[in-house]
Write a structure and sequence with these properties.
The chain is built from 15 helices and 14 strands. The chain is α/β, with parallel strands linked by helices. It folds into 3 domains: 170 residues, Aconitase, domain 3 (2-Layer Sandwich), CATH 3.30.499; 105 residues, no CATH class; 120 residues, Aconitase, domain 3, CATH 3.30.499.
Amino acid sequence: MTLRLSSLDKDLLDGAHGEAAAFCMRLLTRFADAVGAESFIDIDGAHIDGCLYLGQVSLDFVEHLVRLKGRVRVPTTLNVGSVDLIHPELFHGDSEVGTNGARLMKAHEELGCMPTFTCAPYQTMFRPRFGAQIAWAESNAIVFANSVIGARTNRYGDFIDLCCALTGRAPFYGLHMPENRRARVLVEVESLPEEWTDAGPACVAVGHTIGKRCGSLVPAITGLPAHAQEDDLKALGAVAASSGAVALFHAVGLTPEAPTVEAAFQGHRPDETIRLTADDLRATVRNLSTVPDGTPLVGVSLGTPHFSLEEFARLMPLMHGSRPAVDVYVNTNRGVLEELTTRGWKEILEAQGVTLVIDTCTYVTAIMRDMSGAIMTNSGKMAYYAPGNIGVDIAFGSLAECMASARAGKVMRL
């Protein structure tokens, strides 16, 4: 298969747009050959996952582009880093990770990237439009952009995402192409647990299931709660991308490319059908916890993906009452922090002992003060990753259960 290059692609390779862009374009042409792309397309934006310090190579690559005077050619947001640059005192990990982590975040800014430092760029001013071709990394951001917004991106990884940003080009393959966006698996939610009044747990349970059972195939889901909101779909996509390789799902009647089942499948028949009952969903949610009810807690962590302003609006009524008995962390982004301050919510949260974590996330770096026992979360993504990432036991529950448990100091069910 021959890779066709446009005049812009050739100019990029020849150095007409700088040495850094030429370096990146050389990598992109090799990547395009590897994935079988026949051409490149312009992109409207990029989201970079490589801000998290994972070793010297993370820093070497970005600082090489800085030395070559590289600049991004499209609006480019940044994912979480290893430290909270606004509250550096929260980091208590290895000093090399802290120092180099901060240096890596700043190096991306030198390339012209926006210092968003959030895993939820779709809930900032840089939200892409429906149909936009973008090059995003960070698994939950990818699946949200594709599914809930209807933008187009593949699962780009570290370095390739930055190469796309510095060239403004991406290989035309995979989910950039309309025909590859059709659903292949039909997921029918036949019944929902009556006791679940919030859509969140149902969406997490369905997301975890499709991650495990669909792999990288595109599912179309029917029977989700009709009142599911954007943050519920965010939670669904996040755990589906974590427990599997889902980069796009269609929720019939809820997401833009699936007004009907027929539209989601582009007129084709499903390759497979998965049916889920209320008991299936209950079992999935139970299995997200590694400890039984009543287990003592050392902390509660919310906001993975980062908490939106709407999620804080749901949290604020739960702050009335006694101060939590354990540490409570809420991960969010700078824009939301500014709005919390304006509304007076930041002062209320901190008076209740809540630690607001900005620029990073508790399950990827050393932020939580005590990890000697179990942590509770309402995030399916954190429940899936935290035992392996930071070596803690996890209890999964609804937002209300998390806050009730924080006050009790042990896992409580409502």
